[in-house]
Amino acid sequence: MVIELKLLLLLLVANGAPILARHLFGDRFNRPLDGGYRTPKGHYLLGPSKTIRGLIAALIATSATAPLLGIGWKSGAMIGALAMLGDLTASFIKRRLDMPPSSQAIGLDQVPESLLPLLYCAVVFDLDWWGMLLLVLIFSVVVSLLSRLLFLLGVRRRPY
């Protein structure tokens, strides 16, 4: 399997693990990463859907999946951590733009969580810029399609 396909799969695992964890555990272990903190203007720092459970699920899932793909677990953990950092960055920006938690922002919802880990992968796996950009584009399309499918299956709460 080519490295780009393996990295795409790890990005999808990192992105999907928090959703599956919420589906499997319901409200158990559901602690917001920002502790429910609100700014003086009343905005969440990140929002209630960004949880410790989701972060841990992404780290465990990518760390466990990476060796199955011939990638070290430490690289898997780094990909998961950077994907979650990208997701949290997008959430932080959306809150500053007065967008409600779990609202959709095409591009902002996909690019940071795929681009940040791919910048790491560019160094470790010798990806070129075109390969990274193509992976970000493919990731964005696949995540949108999978999101709708998971919504139809009752795994996601919203179709995006």
How far is the N terminus from the C terminus?
29 Å
Q: What is Rg? A: 15 Å
Tally of DSSP β-strands: 0
Number of domains: 1
The helix-strand sequence is: HHHHH
Helix/strand class: mainly alpha
Coarse shape: globular
As a percent range, the share of strand residues is: under 5%
Provide a count of the helices: 5
Helix content: 55-70%
Task: Describe the largest sheet.
Answer: none
Low-confidence stretches: none
**Oligomeric state of the chains in view:** single chain
The average pLDDT is: 91
Describe the protein in words.
The protein is mainly alpha-helical. The chain has one domain (3-152). It has five helices and no strands. The protein has helices at residues 3-25, 52-68, 73-96, 111-124, 129-152. Helix 1 packs antiparallel against helix 2, helix 2 packs antiparallel against helix 3 and helix 4 crosses helix 5. The longest helix is centred in the middle third of the chain and has 24 residues, at 73-96. It is globular. The two termini are 29 Å apart. 34% of the residues are buried. The mean pLDDT is 91.
